[in-house]
Design the sequence.
């Protein structure tokens, strides 16, 4: 009882402090800004000019000039629309370039999902050095006790993130405008299940990019005339990949490469609407940048403690003879297991991945050609004889673990067959 009362007193203190700080901010916001010294002479001159009497004929001339001013022409009205679109595109580029949202009081709380302001990560000097992750030592991180937004403890009313240790009130997420109504409902249904829910920090894998990596991605978008926050149909997606291939290797895509790209497009469009949403496209390209510029050792450092624990559980369930080795084919099955969250199943995948079997006919990967299937069969035969230890398994799987973070049902990085 004493512990509960102390926590209650602590919460009351936090609430009082928040109330004082918010009241102080509101007072500063309502306070009028003092006039600058440079503007005082101008104001004085304007007052002196306004105070001088004007002849009546001057007033009549001014009245006639105001009446003679023509309204906006049809061409001006038509040019206003492209200007508005250009302004919207510039604002979208600004949000993409800075990687920052707006302040909470400026959020559109009804229709817009805007991430909070953040600082992009910087790579350390030892970023590419191997990181030892002990297979037999589970980390089991405990979730935080207070809501990330309001910093108030309310026990069972908090919803945890499946990737990090942050917890949230659904009401706080709604009031701050961080999640739309349908996303809030999905969070309530999945946050306490084995499927889990990623908070707005972890859901956006684009936040893993450094400033330099983000500039590289933006430059590619600009050169390929990709407009931020717009959807892409299959032809646009394929054209974009053609342009990227010419920039990187000065070669056109082969028929096999085009086929793989269309399979990936299908994976990004699981609902078969014929288009890829901007967020899914951005996440997929962000993962591509990570694969291109980061080593596997660097990517392992991006994993959270919860993700490392799940990787341990999956490897242990596959290592039936407990010799510390699994086959390459089992590694592929494990990589597929990270995307079982899309099935919205409540069964736990932290203990076993026995439910991960062959890819169904409705899977995005099932649309590949016979030539690709033959190639896959050959690689599968080689994988059956390949032995993989725990550290190798973690390095080979890390990019797929990161790709499974978003809450979207899209396959942001299609696992190997």
Sequence:
């Amino acid at each position: 009882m004493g512990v509960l009362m102390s926590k209650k007193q602590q919460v009351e203190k936090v609430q009082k402090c928040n109330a004082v700080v918010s009241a102080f901010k509101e007072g500063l916001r309502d306070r009028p800004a003092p006039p600058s010294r440079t503007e005082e002479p101008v104001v004085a001159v304007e007052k002196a000019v306004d105070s001088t009497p004007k002849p009546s004929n001057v007033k009549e001339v001014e009245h006639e000039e105001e009446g003679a001013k023509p309204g906006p022409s049809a061409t001006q009205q038509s040019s206003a629309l492209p200007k508005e679109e250009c302004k919207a595109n510039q604002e979208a580029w600004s949000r993409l370039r800075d990687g920052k949202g707006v302040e909470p009081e400026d959020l559109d709380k009804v229709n817009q999902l805007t991430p909070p302001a953040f600082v992009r990560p910087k790579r350390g000097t030892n970023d590419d050095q191997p990181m030892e992750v002990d297979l037999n030592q589970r980390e089991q991180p405990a979730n935080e006790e207070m809501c990330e937004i309001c910093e108030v403890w309310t026990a069972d009313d908090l919803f945890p993130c499946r990737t990090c240790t942050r917890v949230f009130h659904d009401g706080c997420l709604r009031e701050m405008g961080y999640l739309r109504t349908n996303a809030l409902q999905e969070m309530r249904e999945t946050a306490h299940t084995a499927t889990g829910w990623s908070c707005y920090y972890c859901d956006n894998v684009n936040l893993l990019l450094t400033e330099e990596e983000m500039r590289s991605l933006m430059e590619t978008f600009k050169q390929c005339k990709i407009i931020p926050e717009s959807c892409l149909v299959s032809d646009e997606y394929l054209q974009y990949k053609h342009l990227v291939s010419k920039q990187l290797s000065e070669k056109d895509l082969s028929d096999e490469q085009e086929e793989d790209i269309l399979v990936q497009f299908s994976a990004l469009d699981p609902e078969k609407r014929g288009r890829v949403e901007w967020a899914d496209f951005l996440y997929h390209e962000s993962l591509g940048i990570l694969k291109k510029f980061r080593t596997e050792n660097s990517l392992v450092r991006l994993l959270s403690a919860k993700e490392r624990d799940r990787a341990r559980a999956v490897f242990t369930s596959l290592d039936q003879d407990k010799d510390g080795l699994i086959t390459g084919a089992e590694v592929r099955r494990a990589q597929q297991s990270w995307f079982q969250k899309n099935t919205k199943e409540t069964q736990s995948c932290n203990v076993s991945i026995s439910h991960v079997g062959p890819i169904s006919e409705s899977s995005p990967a099932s649309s590949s050609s016979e030539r690709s299937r033959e190639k896959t069969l050959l690689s599968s035969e080689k994988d059956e004889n390949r032995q993989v230890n725990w550290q190798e398994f973690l390095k080979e799987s890390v990019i797929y673990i990161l790709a499974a973070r978003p809450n979207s049902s899209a396959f942001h990085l299609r696992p190997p067959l």
